[in-house]
């Protein structure tokens, strides 16, 4: 029997009185005893006027409620923080852990037997899973789904790979002011998440592969009726999970399912952010993401999904081509099929649903991949003792092996102030270096790793350069960009010791990135290290600064990882 309203009755030291009070108050909302005496399914409400990606959350909540009630449960929606990429200052990553804490504590505090997590914009799904994993009750994810594509002058457009491409053309003087204004109304034509293989799509695909959401849930477009049916079905499953008292997220996030998620991340040419969020979700289950293993998976698992920014198509096309189940079928020899799922079975059940779609070109077969290897490689070298990552599937092949002169920017502000200065001493062969943009440095590890091409070079036709930093990059971006350099400059990492004029060698084939300066000189520079800014004295900024972990540990707070003692 479900615990329902009786869950967590510890207040007042009198369980009977506490239940009586709960009933008295909830009856104020018009509920009958019969309605209250059944499994209670919490539903996160992350609708916000500041989050257009979640614009369909209200309808999805209604669909989930319908599913819960059809299965004999009582749905209870409750608000949590919502985070949109473009409306979260200084960066959405800075707030992800706050959303995870909010979700964890609200799920734990309120009486519910299972929870349905409705989210989607980049940081929201990882935050919700981190929170639910720590709260330890059965949870199922319902992504809000991707936007449908936009059209402009006969061209298909998508947020936000084409936002960057179009803006680049505007910066280079090829698109004038009136046209770029028109384009701004066509890049994101519906509710839902960015429809390229950016972070939101990446997370939705990985979460489906982790068995935390229903088959097909990643790619059904946000405005489609099928998205609502997915919500209804998820509500039904949540009631079953409440009755079975499981599985809880920690039972689904295992070493095997993490490997499956890494395999999918490589095969979709996914966002580099996916790696950080996977490390954070794994950390909540007391597990680690092994970067060497991730690199090794990338050497044998090719990119199979032909989506921007690595390929040509968009998420709705992935859905029409068979979605994640079809991809999983293609990846079958690389997957651990006994990994459990929210449905109570194993990942094999998801593969069994895979449909053959004649003529589709979005999900490639293993013998005709989009790229011969996976999307990302892990780099090591004297610049990044704790590792760094490069999304080589979205890079310029000729730059993957490159040696050049460093042009250093000491902060995001410094870069913003100088990158377009006509007197900046920079050539196309140089390596642009951004320091102090990591977890503590910026703070919040902003997506500043996609340094713009200096305007004078962009106008001369330069489209890509080697760029390196301790920052992140949007999953919708492209270029020869080394990210997540660990340890970051702001904690004394070697990245902070680079000076303009030094030589840097990127050797992607051998997974190396080296600063070609001798160790004695680096030791001398290290003696002059000073943190780039004073530590914050109060509030969330202080908590963040004092406890945030490095990129290879998921940028979670040190006190939130692992498993509760009593669990
Ligand atoms: Fe929300 Fe891209 S801005 S998913
Ligand atoms: Mg993004």
TrEMBL record:
Family: Belongs to the IlvD/Edd family.
Gene3D superfamilies, sorted: IlvD/EDD C-terminal domain-like
Chain ranges of the Dihydroxy-acid/6-phosphogluconate dehydratase N-terminal domain: 38-349
Keywords carried by this UniProt record: Iron, Iron-sulfur, Lyase, Metal-binding
Record carries keyword Metal-binding: yes
Domain Dihydroxy-acid/6-phosphogluconate dehydratase C-terminal: 362-554
Name of the protein in its database record: Dihydroxy-acid dehydratase
SUPFAM superfamilies: IlvD/EDD N-terminal domain-like (SSF143975), LeuD/IlvD-like (SSF52016)
């Amino acid at each position: 029997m479900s615990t329902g309203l009786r869950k967590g009755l510890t207040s007042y030291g009198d369980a009977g009185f506490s239940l009586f009070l709960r009933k008295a108050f909830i009856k104020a909302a018009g509920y009958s005893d019969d309605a209250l005496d059944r499994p209670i399914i919490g539903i996160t409400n992350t609708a916000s006027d500041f989050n257009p990606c979640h614009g369909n959350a209200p309808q999805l909540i209604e669909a989930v409620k319908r599913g819960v009630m059809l299965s004999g449960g009582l749905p209870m929606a409750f608000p949590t923080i919502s985070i949109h990429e473009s409306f979260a200052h200084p960066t959405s990553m800075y707030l992800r852990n706050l959303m995870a804490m909010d979700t964890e504590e609200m799920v734990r505090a309120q009486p519910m037997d299972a929870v349905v997590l409705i989210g989607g914009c980049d940081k929201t799904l990882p935050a919700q899973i981190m929170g639910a994993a720590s709260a330890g009750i059965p949870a199922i994810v319902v992504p809000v789904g991707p936007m449908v594509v936009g059209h402009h002058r006969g061209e298909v457009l998508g947020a936000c790979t084409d936002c960057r491409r179009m803006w680049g053309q505007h910066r280079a003087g090829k698109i004038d002011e009136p046209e770029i204004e028109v384009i701004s109304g066509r890049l994101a034509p519906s509710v839902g998440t960015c429809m390229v293989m950016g972070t939101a799509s990446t997370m939705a695909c990985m979460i489906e592969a982790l068995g935390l959401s229903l088959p097909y849930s990643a790619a059904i477009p946000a405005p489609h009726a099928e998205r609502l049916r997915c919500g209804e079905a998820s509500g039904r499953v949540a009631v079953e999970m409440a009755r079975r008292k499981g599985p809880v997220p920690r039972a689904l996030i295992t070493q095997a399912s993490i490997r499956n998620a890494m395999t999918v991340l490589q095969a979709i040419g996914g966002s580099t952010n996916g790696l950080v969020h996977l490390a954070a979700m794994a950390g909540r289950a007391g597990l680690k993401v092994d970067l060497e293993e991730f690199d090794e998976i990338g050497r044998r698992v090719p990119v199979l999904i032909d989506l921007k920014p690595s390929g040509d198509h968009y998420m709705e096309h992935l859905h029409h081509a068979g979605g994640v189940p079809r991809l999983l079928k293609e990846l079958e020899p690389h997957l651990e099929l006994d990994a459990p799922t929210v449905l109570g079975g194993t990942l094999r059940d998801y593969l069994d649903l895979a449909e053959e779609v004649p003529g589709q070109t979005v999900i490639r077969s293993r013998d005709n991949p989009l790229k011969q290897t996976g999307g990302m490689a892990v780099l090591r070298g004297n610049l990044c003792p704790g590792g760094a990552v490069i999304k080589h599937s979205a890079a310029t092949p000729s730059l993957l092996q490159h040696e050049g002169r460093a042009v250093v920017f000491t902060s995001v502000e410094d870069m913003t102030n100088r990158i377009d200065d006509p007197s900046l001493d920079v050539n196309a062969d140089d390596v642009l270096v951004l320091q102090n943009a990591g977890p503590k440095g910026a703070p919040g590890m902003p997506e500043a790793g996609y340094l713009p091409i200096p305007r004078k070079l962009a106008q001369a036709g330069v489209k890509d350069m080697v760029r390196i930093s301790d920052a992140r990059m949007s999953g919708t971006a492209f270029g020869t960009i080394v990210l997540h350099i660990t340890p970051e400059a702001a904690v004394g990492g070697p990245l902070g010791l680079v000076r303009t004029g030094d030589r840097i060698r990127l050797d992607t084939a051998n997974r190396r990135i080296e600063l070609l300066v001798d160790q004695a000189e680096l030791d001398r520079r290290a003696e002059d290290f000073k943190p780039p800014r004073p530590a914050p004295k109060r509030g969330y900024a202080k908590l963040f600064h004092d406890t945030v972990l490095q990129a290879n540990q998921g940028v979670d707070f040190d006190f939130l990882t692992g498993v509760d003692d009593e669990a």
